[in-house]
Amino acid sequence: MGNRSISVIAACFLGIASLALTACPPETVQIGAVLPLTGSASVYGEAARKGFELAFEEIQAEGTFETPLALDVVDSASDAAKAAELLEQQFKDGAMVALGGVTTAEAKEMIGVVDRYDRILISPSASSPDLTGISRNFYRVCPSDHTAASKMAQSAAQALEIQTIVIIAEDQPYATDVQGVFSPAFEGYGGEVLETIEFPPGTSDLAALVSRAVSLNPDGVYLAGYSDGIAAMISELRSLDYTGKILTTSAFATPSAIAKVGDAAKGVFLTQTVFDTDSDHAHIKKFVEAYKAKYNETPDIYSAQAYDAMMVLITAVEGRPVLPGEVKKGLRDAIKDFPGVTGSIQFDEKGDVRKFPRLYVISSDGLLADYNERVRAKQDEIREKREALKRQLEELQKKAKTVG
Question: Which pLDDT score, from 0 to 100, does residue 392 have?
Answer without folding.
Answer: 72
